[in-house]
Amino acid sequence: MPSLSSLRRGMNAITTGWRNLIARVRDPYRPELHYMRGPGPKWHAKHPVQAALAG
User: Fold this and answer.
1) Region 49-54: what's the mean pLDDT?
2) Distance CA 11, CA 13 (A)
3) Which residue of 8, 25, 30, 33 is most buried, as measured by CB atoms within 10 A?
4) 32 DSSP assignment
5) CA separation (Å) from 10 to 4, 19, 27, 40, 44?
6) What is the pLDDT of residue 28?
7) Measured in Å, how far apart are the chain's first and last C-alpha atoms?
8) CA separation for the pair 2, 23 (Å, rounded)
9) How much is the pLDDT for 7?
10) What is the pLDDT of residues 1-48, one digit of tens each?
11) Alpha carbon distances (Å) from 29 to 20, 21, 32, 39, 43
């Protein structure tokens, strides 16, 4: 028969897992919304020919 301390450890592991899962689901950060939009002005200053061709 399992002891009380082993049952507590098991319940603690389960509750920790649920808390982590809920935290991940509720996380508002979505990396796909923060994608890079292309080269910036410094790149265009270094590459004037490619920047002119790109339009």
Assistant:
1) 63
2) 5
3) 8
4) G
5) 10, 14, 26, 52, 58
6) 81
7) 75
8) 31
9) 92
10) 668 899 999 999 999 999 999 988 888 887 777 777 788 888 888 888
11) 15, 15, 9, 24, 28
